[in-house]
Structure formats: structure tokens, C-alpha cells
TrEMBL record:
<dbReference type="InterPro" id="IPR029063">
    <property type="entry name" value="SAM-dependent_MTases_sf"/>
</dbReference>
<feature type="binding site">
    <location>
        <position position="121"/>
    </location>
    <ligand>
        <name>substrate</name>
    </ligand>
</feature>
<feature type="binding site">
    <location>
        <begin position="192"/>
        <end position="195"/>
    </location>
    <ligand>
        <name>substrate</name>
    </ligand>
</feature>
<feature type="binding site">
    <location>
        <position position="43"/>
    </location>
    <ligand>
        <name>S-adenosyl-L-methionine</name>
    </ligand>
</feature>
<keyword id="KW-0949">S-adenosyl-L-methionine</keyword>
<dbReference type="GO" id="GO:0008176">
    <property type="term" value="F:tRNA (guanine(46)-N7)-methyltransferase activity"/>
</dbReference>
<comment type="similarity">
    <text>Belongs to the class I-like SAM-binding methyltransferase superfamily. TrmB family.</text>
</comment>
<comment type="pathway">
    <text>tRNA modification; N(7)-methylguanine-tRNA biosynthesis.</text>
</comment>
<dbReference type="Pfam" id="PF02390">
    <property type="entry name" value="Methyltransf_4"/>
</dbReference>
<feature type="binding site">
    <location>
        <position position="153"/>
    </location>
    <ligand>
        <name>substrate</name>
    </ligand>
</feature>
<comment type="function">
    <text>Catalyzes the formation of N(7)-methylguanine at position 46 (m7G46) in tRNA.</text>
</comment>
<keyword id="KW-0819">tRNA processing</keyword>
<dbReference type="InterPro" id="IPR003358">
    <property type="entry name" value="tRNA_(Gua-N-7)_MeTrfase_Trmb"/>
</dbReference>
<dbReference type="GO" id="GO:0043527">
    <property type="term" value="C:tRNA methyltransferase complex"/>
</dbReference>
<keyword id="KW-0489">Methyltransferase</keyword>
<dbReference type="InterPro" id="IPR055361">
    <property type="entry name" value="tRNA_methyltr_TrmB_bact"/>
</dbReference>
<feature type="binding site">
    <location>
        <position position="68"/>
    </location>
    <ligand>
        <name>S-adenosyl-L-methionine</name>
    </ligand>
</feature>
Length: 214
């Protein structure tokens, strides 16, 4: 899917108080950014921000950071935040590969991955956000009892993720291939824009939670 370039989006990102466009070197400083020691949860590839904005509004005692690579996509979330001005929500415009330069060891409580880019070509496997390469990054920034939550409607990507996460020596206490028909796991589920669209099309939503094996 080709992203539509929104004129001026990059300039809005640079000037907006809720967005960090050059976050390298910020690791270890997020409690200062938020002005408290509340848990920090991040969403990588947050799209237009419906999921993370909803979480931030519903959980004022948790800090949230949304990460998005493209200014034109992030712009929609920023517009929501300009209206809501939630004190526990910030955004970063960056490529997720640099995540260990932005968050310190054990600084993050939870990582959300929602409907991530499948990177279908085999040679791009390491770019998938559930690859063993990314799991190694998460291992650094997550607290010992932290977890990764992943949702997708892409069965091939989900199967790949299950194998990669096991290869990375993480455990999978939660796995479902049909989240919306699992009354226990679906309770309190916050939908993303893609999740709403795909479920309306009849696509089952897969979800896993990964925790460390040590």
C-alpha cells in the first residue's frame, strides 16, 4: 500500500510538543519526559494512533510512547493528541531498528505490535517486528517481567512470529488464532483501525503474548 504524502506533515512533527523527531540519546530519560516513574509502554508502528490514544486516555497512571516511521501517518495521531492533550502520551518519528538508542535497559514495561508490515519477501525477514533480531532488541529495553503483545490478521506472519519467538528463547503463554471469538482474551481488547476493518471483512485476528524464558 503506497502511503500518501501529506504536505507539511514533516514540519508539523518537528514543531509539535508531543513528538520527538531526533530521539537518539533519550534512553534513560523517559521518567523525566513524563515527570513521573509510572510504567512506560510503547507501540511500534502505531499508524493513526487510535489504539495507543485510547489506552492513554483509559490508563492515566501508565505512560505511552507511540513509534511511527512516516510523518504522513503519524500526523493523524498528533492531531488527536492536540485535541486531547493527554499528559501520558508522546510520539517518536523514527525507524524501530534504532530502538535501543532511544530506550535504556529495562526502561519499557510492555511493547505492542499491531498489524505490523509483513515484509513478505524472505530476504526482508529480519525487518519483521517479530523477527529474532527485533526480539533481541526488546530483550534489552524490556523489564525482566515485561511482555510483547502482537496482533495481526496475516496468518503467514503469525506463523513466522511463533517460530521466531521460540527460536529467540521466549515463552508464549498466550496464543489465539481467533481473538474476537475468545471471550476471555477479547475482554477489554482495544481495536486498531486495521483490526476494525479486517474483522468487518471476516478475517480472524491472531494474537500472542511473549515473555522471557529466563
Amino acid at each position: 500500500m503506497r502511503l500518501r504524502n501529506v504536505p507539511g506533515a514533516r514540519e508539523v512533527m518537528i514543531e509539535n510538543e508531543y513528538v520527538f523527531t531526533e530521539p537518539e540519546g533519550m534512553k534513560g530519560t523517559w521518567s523525566q519526559v513524563f515527570g513521573n516513574d509510572n510504567p512506560i509502554r510503547i507501540e511500534i508502528g502505531m499508524g493513526k494512533g487510535t489504539f495507543i490514544t485510547t489506552l492513554a486516555a483509559n490508563n492515566p497512571d501508565i505512560n505511552y510512547v507511540g513509534i511511527e516511521k512516516y510523518s504522513s501517518v503519524l500526523l493523524r495521531a498528533v492531531e488527536k493528541q492536540d485535541e486531547l492533550q493527554l499528559p501520558n502520551l508522546r510520539f517518536i518519528r523514527m525507524d524501530a531498528e534504532a530502538i535501543c538508542e532511544v530506550f535504556g535497559d529495562g526502561e519499557v514495561d510492555r511493547i505492542y505490535l499491531n498489524f505490523s508490515d509483513p515484509w513478505p519477501k524472505d530476504r526482508h525477514a529480519k525487518r519483521r517486528l517479530t523477527s529474532r533480531q527485533f526480539m533481541a532488541r526488546y530483550d534489552i529495553i524490556l523489564k525482566p517481567d515485561g511482555q510483547v503483545e502482537f496482533k495481526t490478521d496475516n496468518k503467514d506472519l503469525f506463523d513466522f512470529s511463533l517460530e521466531e519467538i521460540k527460536e529467540a528463547d521466549w515463552e508464549l503463554p498466550v496464543v489465539t488464532f481467533d481473538l474476537h471469538n475468545d471471550s476471555v482474551l477479547n475482554e477489554g481488547n482495544v481495536m486498531t483501525e486495521y483490526e476494525t476493518r479486517f474483522s468487518q471483512m471476516g478475517n480472524p485476528i491472531c494474537k500472542l503474548i511473549a515473555v522471557r524464558n529466563h
